[in-house]
Write a structure and sequence with these properties.
The protein has 280 residues and is α+β, with helices and mostly antiparallel strands. The chain folds into two domains: 106 residues, no CATH class; 140 residues, Alpha-1-antitrypsin, domain 1 (Roll), CATH 2.30.39. The chain starts with a strand and ends with a strand. One of its GO terms (cellular component) is extracellular space. One of its GO terms (molecular function) is serine-type endopeptidase inhibitor activity. Belongs to the serpin family.
């Protein structure tokens, strides 16, 4: 076996952090490839790596809730754990999907091109049923049903890291020559005539925390202070398993999606990703 380790910190230094991690966008990309097998008689293989990171500034910044408060996340009606929670308030779009027994909450990013859609079942243990019933058109239906409401939103901090392999899927849609030693033509990339792609690896990281610009955070703090005497706002607490969708609102498609059963948070982005593939 030959191990390929992609050190993200090294790439960031070589290509400059700004080009990979832009503050004005929520999506940051890192791509790399490695060629192995140049020894005599060996098949020359290429590994393609792509990393996508989603972490943006909120249009309405969240503030961290004190760890001293009871911030419980209920995995089931009888099983709960304390997790880091954050809170914000303002005007948000909310849709009630009665046929799913769930609600959809739209959390816009500072870059208005993107938003995070939280699909929250009304029942603590309702996620399984929600996943079984949810259809692609339900997100479009939610958009048409959405109403603006003044809310106090409580959301757990979380991060999801996922590594996937794409060879089988790409072959199933007809991209086969790229993986065949006899048919692949990558002569523009290498002098090795038998070079072909052996593996396609994608790493996706979605990070949700209280990030917000200092200007917006100050505005939010001042607003909360000025309105402290106003009537209590309607509250949506995301304190049970839910689905999330990172949306491109202009093109109307899903960039990343997932489910949260137990929120987990990491202090930093991963500094290394290691994959292995066989050397023939």
């Amino acid at each position: 076996m030959i191990a390929l380790e992609s050190h993200i910190s090294s790439v960031r230094r070589a290509l400059s952090a700004r080009s990979l991690f832009r503050k004005e966008d929520i999506a940051h990309a890192l791509s790399a490839n490695s060629i192995t097998g140049r020894s005599a008689g060996a098949k020359t293989k290429m590994l393609l790596f792509n990393g996508l990171y989603f972490a943006g500034l909120w249009a309405k910044p969240f503030t961290k809730i004190s760890a001293d408060e009871d911030n419980f996340f209920f995995m089931t009606a009888e099983d709960a754990t304390k997790v880091p929670m954050m809170q914000t308030k303002g005007t948000f779009h909310v849709a009630e999907l009665e046929h799913l027994n769930a609600k959809v909450l739209c959390l816009p990013y500072e870059n208005k091109k993107y938003a995070m859609m939280i699909v929250l079942p009304n029942e603590t243990e309702g996620l399984r049923s929600l996943i079984e019933k949810l259809q692609a058109e339900d997100l479009k239906k939610a958009k048409s049903l959405a109403q603006q409401r003044e809310l106090r939103v409580t959301l757990p901090k979380f991060q999801v890291d996922e590594t996937s392999r794409s060879e089988a899927m790409l072959k199933s849609i007809g991209l086969k020559k790229l993986f065949a030693r006899e048919e692949s033509d990558l002569s523009l990339l290498s002098v090795d005539n038998d070079l072909h792609v052996d593996e396609v690896v994608q790493f996706v990281s979605v990070r949700v925390d209280e990030s917000g610009s200092s200007e917006n955070a100050l505005t939010a703090s001042d607003s909360q202070a000025r309105t402290s005497g106003t009537p209590e706002l309607e509250s949506i607490e995301v304190n049970r398993p839910f689905l999330y969708f990172v949306m491109d609102c202009e093109e109307e498609f899903v960039i990343a999606a997932g489910k949260i059963y137990t929120p987990e948070v990491k202090d930093e982005l991963p500094i290394a990703i290691e994959v292995e593939f066989e050397q023939s």
